[in-house]
Design brief:
six-stranded antiparallel beta sheet, alpha+beta, 21 strands, globular, about 425 residues, 2 domains, 13-stranded mixed beta sheet
């Protein structure tokens, strides 16, 4: 904090307002190559992000060196001089924060022995199937985010994380699975190994399907891919006002299925949950869709000021470098819960190519990864290579059921979802 106060003091002599964002972390990780540990070690991370505002001109800079903070401030000031001025109503002042979400595990220690135990657990899971390990890893980390500004904000938040992943191969088919949580005891390495090996072993061969419409079950992984590349950008106030969102001008309209509600709950138990956003605004639940009706867009301060709106506490950062941007902390979807794989459908474990989806229209065309025919809750037969083409906003209107179980995938907590009448392209 002493260093941060020095930065603020110096920054005040160069600009009207100053914001300092500090990210510190330490971690231990291990990597597998086949069944042998290839790399193991620890690392520390440190970064300072400085943002200055002077007469509506915003400048940012970052450094990973404690000794270079003065040069970092100067660089931020220099970039502000080159920026186009915009409407600016000030950095946030201190406010009452919500209770801290469950994102810190006090029992988590940076112990290589934990990583080794997790690797052994994944390898034990692999033994249940005929598949070879090609790679994987395990890691534990803890970090602290501090945000301070000249308006009086002084916030700090600690976070822990643990995770593991494994990739297997059988013949020409591969399988991949992972687990991640803020709490080490929630990681299930045996399941990760078992499922990675299962998909590798069982995905070979399979039957071809004809091009046509099918009921489809998207796993939480596949569902998160499509939502992350299409829905989240479409909810950004910046994209809405720039005419780059299908949802522009649709507030108050029913845009997706009337039984579906979607919201950002940063106070939920998600990997990206938080008490405050990347600009020091208090975090709060933000309902995007209530029973299909579009109710809110997401705003950071810069976009809110520009378009005479209010910040929704939706600013995020990928680290200390760069400026805050509009994002979603913990995306949650709610609706009718049921079993999703009792009746025959095509199950999709993952998709390839979601990043090519059109965030303006919602259209996508992706390759299915590890697809299976499912029925009566069982994987019946693998599906030989197929494509899935559709529209994310349309599929959210074709939800037949949401699964009863949820899992964390990146910045989302999602169930599997059963969709009616989806267009698949066979070989």
């Amino acid at each position: 904090m002493e260093l941060i106060e020095e930065i603020l003091k110096y920054g005040r002599t160069r600009a009207e307002e100053v914001e300092v964002y500090v990210a510190e972390s330490e971690s231990v990780s291990t990597d597998l190559k086949k069944k042998q540990v290839e790399n193991a070690g620890g690392s520390e991370g440190f970064g300072i992000g400085v943002r200055v505002i002077d007469h509506g001109r915003i400048g940012v800079s970052a450094t990973s060196s404690r000794d270079e903070w003065r040069r970092c401030v100067d660089a931020a000031v220099a970039s502000a001089k080159l920026a186009h001025p915009q409407e600016w109503k000030g950095l946030p002042a201190p406010a009452a924060l919500p209770d801290a979400p469950a994102i810190f595990d006090p029992s988590l220690s940076l112990d290589p022995a934990w990583c080794r135990k997790v690797l052994e657990g994944m390898l034990d899971g692999v033994e249940e199937h005929d598949a070879a390990v090609t790679g994987g890893g395990a890691s534990v980390s803890r970090g602290t985010i501090t945000i301070v500004n000249t308006a009086g904000v002084r916030y700090e938040q600690a976070r822990t994380s643990a995770g593991c992943s494994l990739e297997c191969i059988h013949g020409q088919s591969t399988g991949y699975e992972f687990d991640a949580s803020c709490f080490a005891d929630e990681i299930d390495p045996v399941r990760v190994g078992r499922e990675a090996a299962f998909f590798a072993e069982q995905s070979g061969g399979g039957e071809e399907i004809a091009t046509g419409n099918y009921d489809v079950v998207l796993s939480p992984i596949a569902f998160a891919q499509l939502l992350g590349y299409v829905l989240e950008p479409a909810l950004s106030g910046r994209n809405v006002h720039a005419g780059r969102s299908w949802l522009a001008g649709k507030l108050g309209e029913v845009c997706i299925g009337e039984e579906i509600s979607i919201y950002d709950d940063p106070l939920d138990r998600g990997l990206s949950s938080t008490q405050f956003d990347a600009e020091g605004m208090p975090a709060r639940k933000l309902t995007f869709f209530d029973h299909g009706e579009l109710q809110h867009y997401a705003y950071d301060l810069r976009t809110a000021y520009r378009y005479e709106a209010e910040s929704t506490g939706s600013a995020v950062r990928g680290g200390a470098g760069g400026a805050p941007a509009i994002g979603v902390h913990t995306l949650v979807i709610d609706g009718p819960r049921d079993t999703v794989d009792d009746e025959r459908a095509v199950y999709v474990h993952d998709v390839v190519g979601a990043h090519t989806a059109n965030p303006l229209t919602g259209d996508f065309s992706v390759e299915l990864s590890n697809p299976f025919i499912v029925e009566d809750g069982e994987f019946v037969v693998p599906v030989k290579g197929a494509m899935y083409a559709g529209n994310v906003f349309a599929l959210l209107g074709e939800v037949a059921a949401l699964g009863r179980k949820e899992r964390s995938v990146g910045g989302a907590v999602l169930p599997a979802v059963r969709l009616s009448g989806q267009h698949l392209i066979g070989r």
